[in-house]
Design a protein that fits this description.
CATH superfamily of one domain: TolB, C-terminal domain
Helix content: under 10%
Strand order of the largest sheet: 3-2-1-24
CATH topology of one domain: Neuraminidase
Largest sheet: 4 strands, antiparallel
Strand content: over 45%
Oligomer: single chain
Radius of gyration: 28 Å
Number of strands: 52
CATH class of one domain: Mainly Beta
CATH architecture of one domain: 6 Propeller
Length: 635
């Protein structure tokens, strides 16, 4: 037996004795495959066997690019990601490589996979979508865990014992941490990172480890604070080769040297490195992720989410603290928690929202249980206004960055571009649906590219288009900076706001005729407008400081009278508005500089704020609607 294989057996044996002696409860040995270290190298998954030192190919994916790896030792599952163009997905098999299944499609660049072996969840990063996600082992219950503030998330590791998930972002150069349900997000390491790849946790040392390819170092941090320690300089061992994979077994770190297809080990948390090397692995490709499969590495523990009935949750059981948990629904699929907080159902009344900085478009059920976990219908770069067709149950939203209007079904399928810049679309800040006439109204402001003579054509208008695209026309041209708009379908009125040099609110007929200025004093920057039951509600952000402060106001159409709403809490930059019965909903940004804000409710009867319904990355557009409506106007 050669030296490389000897060190491997010795390190695993020492770890077994260490864990046994400190009294850690061990998981049962899986009957589905041998123990050892698994390595992905693009087209193969290799296993370096613990007992014999043999190297076996347990799975081949021709023309693939297998990168991420994770294992549930007790249940005998192996998970991996493939980022190749034609086989892009997340897969699952037994530890011996049999029983291969695709469990998750619609992934782009999944370079990191990890598991919560206690609650039976798989976690992964997606650099293409800029997300961290979670699903059940069979791929069901899929949710976006983190979808804002990410640029190039790569490495990920789950700690189901202390209930954290850690991930590294090569774009932001941070390592972050959250609870297993995505809440309590925290930056753990933010200085000195350059190109962090795979992460690993060692329970005996209670530390998080990572390999930095550009710095050619193995580093670590405790699980709570920054406290970064350089464990090893690996430059002399890599000779300029790239490094991706890392596992830590007790105080032994094993890392993969990519293009030369070698595994190297060293001690961590000690002064003496004790370098060892495994011979060059077969099927010479670039090495990616590593995962160690030993019964001692995944401690058994009971939790309601790991039971057969998933804590009584119909779709997804998310651990929080201790033995606590919350039920959740998939991010997409048109479902929300019912009143019992356990089952997912199609809601009957919907409050749609856009989160401009995270790119999410979704809804809150107004008839089910309150939940911190959002139901989404779509994503784009910077979604702004949102509206809904309750007859065909299609959601429409505009994107301020892409100069587009999207449409998607309520369950998140059939996403399409409805209009974009090729159709003369600029910035669209307002949308309003005439679901009876099957028409969409929208604001449209932009300018053309310079012509041969250098001239630039600009436009500022409100348009109407039929939902089948057969008819489109401009209804308002005499406007400087159109912003919010809404409709009184029953009485045939169009309301819209103008951010121009003379800010104003205008009422006209639906075809834009007979315009009447209903407010042009005490107004600065009218953003959201919503009409409900004979009243028009307006949010003025006072961005240009033309009034005393940001405020919300209401216009009684029959009395032609305005009233400012007295909020118990000040607003900063109010954006979107929606009304349901006696409740007004509004979005409010903390500031133009900070990427956060709130969705709040306000009781119109008693003049008091009710609660914060959503905290997110700049919530912007709002729209209320029942799930479905008939074509006739209800009496």
């Amino acid at each position: 037996m050669d030296n490389g294989r000897s060190w491997f057996l010795l390190s695993l044996g020492l770890l077994f004795l260490l864990i046994h002696n400190i009294g850690v409860t061990c998981a049962k040995v899986s009957p589905f495959g041998g123990n050892g270290v698994y390595v992905s190298n693009g087209t193969h998954i290799l296993r370096v066997d613990r007992d014999t030192g043999g190297i076996h190919s347990i799975h081949v994916q021709r023309d693939g690019k297998i990168v991420g790896l994770a294992a549930d030792i007790d249940d005998g599952y192996l998970f991996w990601s493939d980022v190749s163009r034609n086989q892009r997905a997340i897969y699952r098999s037994w530890l011996d490589g049999t029983g291969v299944k695709i469990i998750l499609l619609d992934v782009r660049e999944c370079y990191g996979v990890s598991v919560d072996w206690i609650s039976n969840h798989v976690y992964w990063t997606d650099s293409g979508k800029k997300t961290v996600e979670i699903a059940n082992y069979d791929g069901s219950g899929r949710r976006l865990l983190v979808s804002s503030g990410l640029e190039k998330p790569r490495g990920i590791v789950v700690d189901p014992i202390f209930k954290f998930v850690f991930w590294a972002d090569q774009g932001t150069r941070k390592i972050e941490r959250s609870a297993l349900d995505g809440t309590d997000r925290k930056t753990l390491v933010h200085d000195g990172l350059q190109w962090t790849n795979q992460l690993a946790i060692s329970y005996p040392t209670r530390r998080l480890y990572w390999v930095d390819e550009r710095k050619e170092e193995i580093l670590s941090s405790d699980l709570e604070n920054n406290n970064v320690v350089k464990e090893r300089d690996i430059a002399k061992k890599t000779n300029g080769d790239s490094v991706f994979g890392l596992v830590v077994i007790g105080n032994t770190a094993i890392f993969g040297i990519s293009r030369s297809s070698r595994l190297q080990s060293t001690f961590v948390q000690t002064q003496v490195p004790s370098w060892k090397e495994v011979p060059i692995l077969p099927h010479g490709q670039e090495l990616y992720s590593l995962v160690a499969v030993m019964p001692t590495l995944q401690t058994s523990s009971a939790h309601p989410c790991g039971e057969k009935n998933k804590g009584g949750c119909s779709h997804l059981c998310l651990p929080t603290r201790g033995m606590s948990y919350q039920c959740a629904c998939p991010s997409f699929g048109g479902l929300a928690l019912s009143v019992n907080g356990k089952n997912c159902e199609v809601p009957s009344e919907l409050l749609f929202f856009t989160l401009k900085d995270s790119g999410n478009v979704g809804f809150i059920s107004l008839t089910g249980a309150q939940s911190p976990y959002l139901t989404l219908v779509g994503r784009s770069t910077q979604p702004s206004a949102v509206s809904y067709d309750p007859i065909n149950q299609m959601v429409y939203w505009s994107d301020a960055s892409e100069n587009s209007i999207y449409t998607v079904s309520l369950d998140g399928t059939d996403k399409k571009i409805f209009l974009n810049s090729s159709h003369g679309i600029g910035t669209v800040d307002g949308l309003a649906m005439d679901f009876l006439a099957r028409q969409l109204y929208f604001t449209n402001m932009g300018q053309s590219a310079p012509g041969q003579d250098g001239a630039v054509y600009s436009w500022h208008r409100i348009e109407m288009i039929s939902l089948n695209h057969e008819k489109r026309k401009t209804v308002v041209t005499n406007i400087e900076r159109p912003r919010g708009l809404d409709l009184d379908i029953r009485n045939g009125f169009l309301f819209y706001g103008d951010w121009g040099d003379k800010p104003m609110i205008v009422q006209s007929l639906l075809d834009g005729s007979n315009p009447k200025v209903i407010l042009d004093k005490g107004l600065s920057n009218p953003n959201g407008l919503t009409f409900y039951n004979g009243r028009l509600y307006v949010a003025d952000s006072n961005y240009n400081n033309r009034t005393s402060s940001p405020h919300l106001m209401v216009y009684d159409v029959s009395k032609s009278s305005w009233q400012q709403l007295k909020l118990s809490a000040n607003v900063s930059l109010p954006m979107g508005l929606a009304v349901r019965g006696d409740t007004l909903y509004y979005t409010d940004w903390v500031s133009m500089e900070m990427s956060n804000g709130y969705l709040k409710s306000y009781d119109l009867r008693f003049g008091v704020d009710n609660n914060v319904m959503l905290t997110g990355a700049r919530p912007t557009g709002l729209h209320y609607s029942p799930l479905a409506r008939r074509r006739q106007v209800p009496k």
